Protein 1
Amino acid sequence: MTAQLIKGAEVAAQIREELKKEIADLKAKHNVVPGLVTVLVGADPASQVYVGQKEKTSKELGIYSERYDLPADTSQADLLKLIDKLNKDPKINGILVQLPLPKGLNEEEVLIAIDPKKDVDGFHPVNVGKLMIGEPDYLPCTPAGIQQLLIRSGTQIEGAEVVVVGRSNIVGKPIANMLLQKAEGANATVTICHTRTKDIAFHTKRADILIVAAGKPKAVTGDMVKEGVVVIDVGVNQIGTTAEGKRILAGDVDFDTVSEKAKAITPVPGGVGPMTITMLMMNTVRAAKVAAGLTE
């Protein structure tokens, strides 16, 4: 069996073209321009790259963009004061505070301070609760990207046995909740495995769809899956460097052995990664439409 590659970069490009048209229509017909602000505290190199990518994508799509770069010694009070100001700014529909924050800052308090209607990351407890009861305003970006990859690759989700390896608040729990809802692109039977699961392979071998966000390179191998499985590999792990100093990356799935049995599989890199920022943009557009009274 030759596995189909589910290329996140191609799906993300397709969605971005759809968003670009929607944003142009919003401006032309309703004079609405979605606005996204990113807040970066400190100078973490990876966070700087992520924020730069979000800013660049916003401009490419026609989203109004602001960026705040704050020193690492910014106080909790000053950060909360900025968030309050952004909550009240009508030009801003989405607020994204880049995590992790420097030591000494309370991430939970910061996330709760964001207006749930502007929480385009989907991390506010109000939005987490709405997801849980099947009435989400904003889906968290990486899980939303995973769901779109499954839908747009033609994967049968309804009635499927889905196994999620990993129970983080960012990926594992939300994608499990999303796929078990009574909704389009869902209606699956979902099992979650984690570090205390006695026999992970017992569960992964039953999976029609396997989503792996274990945080460990090559945690799932070919002998742990059945023929014809669809595999979404969320992990990105550096396992070495080339002679030229380039990073060697591996997913949480052993691509070589699993792809021999899979019907379809995401590559690493180029799988889930490109989808996350795209779904952030989709949430920002939705937030703008809600603020303008153009959707519920």
Protein 2
Amino acid sequence: MSDRPEIFRSLGDPTRLRILALLRAMELSVGEVAQVLGQSQPRVSRHVKILIDSGLVERRKEGSWVFLSLATAERVTPLFALLDAWAALDGEDPWAIADAARLAAVRADRTAAAERYFSIHASNWDEIRSLHIAESEVEAAIARALSDRPVGRLTDIGTGTGRMLELFAPNADGATGIDRSPEMLRLARAKLGEAGLAADLRQGDMYALPLPSESADTVIIHQVLHYAQQPNAAITEAARLLAPDGRLLIADFAPHEREELRDRDAHTRLGFADETMLKYLDGAGLEGRVVEHLKGGELTVTIWIGECKRRHLKAVA
């Protein structure tokens, strides 16, 4: 039986339309949605349940937080086309303008918290990473994952102190490191200079990388996405850099319940399930696969690789 009547019933409330518009902009926790809307969390939760039951919104629990995102593009794109067409006829909704301003404040709060942490801990960042799992194990696994073909032109997103560049730039045809934190970039420049390695280090945002499309053969996102407000958007932007035969390697935590990392270490996400990461890679036009789960520390680190689907299509042809 068609679920279209259920979808239209779920849209019969202005609050639920506002929630969809917010999630169109970025993934949010239930508490953040309530903050933007200026409504109680129980009331927002009731609206969210209706949207989930209609299949328009998906829910993901991370520790004590619940994150919300839109359903698949195939399901929501026709709906937004209809809503956009009506908006063009009726003019912009005043609620939408106010919600966008409050959403910007939520985004700014998240970013400020992360940047405060990075600024305070930039000098011992490598030491903090090693507390979770032996970094040497992660580095060896990344090297194995990239060993099947040349690195080519390398881009490291969220380069931090430049460790990935230090490891892989010597065998690359050019290396670029991007980080939002100027403190991190200063440390990376000093570290790579001492090692005699040449790399192009740039300050930039993972959602709007200062590089042209198809400018990289290998892109690495190492222990960065658990800080991302919109990991799917960051992955899509990283995929934009890939040449037709390019690959994106992601190393990050598997799902965990270490809630204190959210407050103490500014983690936005408590790890990623394989199915979630593979969905992100597929949405970015990449053929994703799980490479390895690295256990042995307090947290498990997973390595995923996404390759351009164009490469696979060419291989089949």
Protein 3
Amino acid sequence: MSNPTDGVTHFNQPLLKTPFHNRARALSQNDSFVAWAGYTTVDVFTSPEQEYFAVRNTTGVYDLTPMIKYRITGKGALRFLNHLVTRDVSKLKVNRVIYTVWCNDDGHILDDGTLFRLGEDEYWLCCAERQYDWLLDSAIGFDVAVEEVTEQVAALAVQGPTSCWTLKQLGMSGIENLKPFEVGRFQVEGVDVMASRTGFTGDLGYEIWMPPEKAEFIWDRLMEAGRTRLIRPIGSQALNAVRIEAGFLMPHFDFVSAESTIRLGRDRSPLELGLDWLVDFKKGHFNGRRALVAEQKRGVTRKLVGLDIDGNKPAHSALLYTDKSGQTEVGFVTSAMWSPTCKRNIALAMVNAPFFSVGSEVWAEIYLNRELLWERRMVKATVVEKPFFAPERRRLTPPADR
């Protein structure tokens, strides 16, 4: 298999390149790339801090192309999806998007993602990992077609307080009228572009979807449109920081797909992850429903929560204890950061009952590397509500011009 971007064989260069790769490579000052879903993507362009502040103060642009995309069509598409995911898809209108999860028969999460309804019988399901086998198995008996279209669609996440203004300068007139989780269609100098008011930053933002052959053209026009407002491409590290502030979950950080776990007790249910609001028990049967009903009745024994931690040293992978002595373990941190915007030391953590209630106090064991020596600190942490950062502009329609 050849890579069409540079002629290098797939054997020697196993990671695919997105349609934006050449533009991203030219702007990368650190030569820092990571693999995502079989593609090579930028981890850091300049510094995580500069890219973080681009999202919070101007506009950050993230290459979303590697996100796995499935096109689901047919007269039985709605029934199939209602059987597959935990939310009631019948409530999803055309040109709208919802966030959802899907589970195995034990009620444990296989993946999460966004579900687009693009027509009466046409949907897109977007997720971080490939789920084709599970989708095909789940589709048995339904009048539905499932097709992976990842390589057929190039995508950019355009996020930040000036994102709407920038897209209007790009020529996407009317995008300011898109409501959160709404889809619109636009033309940029003759190129058809679909936009959704969605994102992984918890800020004002959009995701734009386009033909791969027009990707570089749209990139160039977008960067020129936002030049005076200091638009900047961002990598995975900056995206990870802003999604923690938003309280969003990341696969392999905050949970592992039940398809991937090899040790008992490592998979998670949506109720344990604080996603019970995504589970609609009234809609009828869906994968994992019986197990989730039983879990709801007996109550969860652990839960993913937000933590406000004393001090300013991030509690990366910290163990949590009932008191400062560190004798009785009650959980662990899954994601952590010092938030420059919130001016708080924050984390997401899996905490055992009864310590996951808001207001509960636990102690975090933090290790710091000081000139090749490790220091151990025990600091107090308080369970708090999520998200940590939720600006009004993320929902304001139309957004203010900045």
